## 1
Amino acid sequence: MTSKFQVLIVNDDEDINRLLADYLVPYGFVTHVACDADSMRRQLERHSIDLIVMDVMLPGTDGLSLTREVRQHSPIPVIMLTARADHFDRVLGLENGADDYVTKPFEPRELVARIQSVLRRANAHSNTKGRDGGHVICFNGWKLNPENHSLHAPSGITVALSNAEFRLLCSFLHTPRRLLSRDQLIELAHGHVAGAGERSIDLLVSRLRQKLAGSPDGADMIKTVRGRGYLFTAPVERGQAA
């Protein structure tokens, strides 16, 4: 991957910041560093950041809260760095909008591979403009604009989606009323999603249901077929974007 993607490293350890920033440069990345919430916000204002590597343990506002803050305003992918490796912490990262999760200690080359993978997925879905560009996808009064990742409820309220949630919803919308196994959903959502596996997909489906529950019968659009997978039941149409 030779494109000059801009990566922001958010960590309060200056040595780690310097090490990672220098390590990523030969792989074609432009790197920036921040040590806390305020410096992260300044970097986001100054630069067109393509991905954030976020440490969980930060002074003041922690990395989970900052990831949630980023997700409320932007689809920028976030990879969490943490010394805690149990499933509960992974779930917390997913619930707060992280796209992947790397535990310490880690090999820098593994982090490079994760960054490249997350960026490939993000760019693959931004390229839905070629297939759905200028159009919105409509279902049960909801409207999804694939070009800018915006999801609008029937009430008109904009519902924030993480990149993983957006990919999963697109997978359902492009295969409506078709039973999909968990393995198929992992593949359709472009591979490894935040520690991929059946439990990760189940968690993503649960989060997506919660967000769709903002309208009558919204959560019921995704049916669980026990032992087989999931079925998106709503009719899907494409219309011209405003």
## 2
Amino acid sequence: MDTSNRSVPGAQAVARAARLLRLVTSTAGDGAALQDLARTADLSRSTTHRLLSALRAEGLVDRDEESGLWMPGPELFLMGSVAAARYDVTALARDIVRALAVKTEESAFLSVRRADETVCLLREEGSFPIRSFVLSEGVRFPLGVASAGLAILSFLPDHDVDAYLDRHPDLSERWGRTHARAPLRRRLAETKERGFAVNPGLIVNGSWGMGAAVFDRTGRPEWALSLTGVEFRFGPDRIADLGRTLMAHAHQLSSRIAGARR
């Protein structure tokens, strides 16, 4: 937790509840079991149940009575509808993501940076029949793990990258040795030089991803377009072609966002 909030009454409870909300909404509508939420949030089952019950009373989460799984509640939809007017770019991006899927025949995505994570906002299926299902709407990954987050992190200022790595020294414990500081920094440098990110099956063996950052008016990478597919579709020559296509679509979306927010 941010040390600046430790003296604020109720801050710990709010932070825990917010953590559970993020976990529930990252299930992409499938629902999450109490024990899984408790383990991931590093809370006891009783504390997790108490917080979820309070959130349910406010309509922020819901519980399926048959399966016992916890899901996003109706109040989140209403809140999201209001927030979308300021933060949502999916209306601007939908046709670009669809065009990317059509042109490449791979699954295409739009993700947004949210603090130290990326959240998938849009998914469009490509026509190639064999697909990767690592990513879907609502799924979150830490920056630097999936290709979208790797692309975004690569183009943040150096001091922001340093601060992020200091905040997350345990990335390699959860995501493997390739996410330790030294190899991650190498991939960040390669991504910045190349212009787009490549994830060679580092999350799920055989499932490759590529990403290109999308920038706001000030030049900060706040979104990313990405592609996923099976390994044999990502040979060296095709990676170069896909990279150029990704960057062209990302540039188009960056220009559209800048123009829409003037």
## 3
Amino acid sequence: MKILMYSVRDDEKAAIKNWADKHQVQIDTIAQALHLTTAHQAEGYDGIVIQQRAKVEDGVYPILQQAGLQQIASRTAGYDVINLALAAASGLKVTNVPAYSPHSVAELALTHTLRLIRNLELFDFRSAKQDFRWEGLQAKEIHSLTVGIIGAGRIGGTTAKLFQALGARVIAYDLKERDELKSILTYTSKEELLQQADVVCLHVDLNPTSENLMDEAAFALMKPTAYLVNECRGPVVNTPALIKALKAHQLAGAALDTLTGEEKFFNVDLTGKELPSKELIELRAMPNVIITPHIGFYTNIAVQNMVDISLDDTLAILQGKKSSHEITA
């Protein structure tokens, strides 16, 4: 049995080798993503595993089908880069890793929130100019805040537990209410959450119903003293509307671990080069905005789990078994 893994980073290779040795399966890796120019490299392999932000072109699926492949495993939670209908039409089963480490993303949400409410970005901005005054930057204590979680699933639920443990009041909006969370949070409507929350944390999947979930109308409901924290997917936030709201002081700041069009600049060294996004340039110029390059997943445990679970799913399908992480259109 042979498996090809696309978009492999150096920090994943030890985990991949451990899994390959344990299961006695040959695994080859390439640094490139799955595209029309690299799809032919899957010929001769039994399975493939991918991780990428750019969409898989429609022409890739028949190439994989012709190569005799049965599946595509994404070692990420998001799978919007894959056309599920075309994959199914080409006889390809699709799997993802829905919960590689809820703590990894939740802890970043907490970290971002703490930096925002302590005005650390603004202090850094002043310090860089040798201005070491405190004036106007009095912080807030987290136990005095109401934190709103939009999307209280595995990650959102873990985030809620962290904030509740620190004494914050936690409210949540989700189409599916979980009984096990009701002792630590109060479910409410999206509108009520936006009106009440001092911090709004986004933890939803990207789908047609969540795209542009945070738009001009949503920002208009938020307190001018509130913060937005996005740890899920870029298109969940309408970026022009966010920029407009920040400029109009409709909210106090934002922490963004993901942005629309991020495949053009995140995890890319653009030192000394012109940034490819006008919106990114505008956001970076704002001292009350924190931008991190989609690193919510990037911990030792999460990377190990992403490798192990995606390969476990691939092996299961190749052995004629069913994966619990299989996604259908």
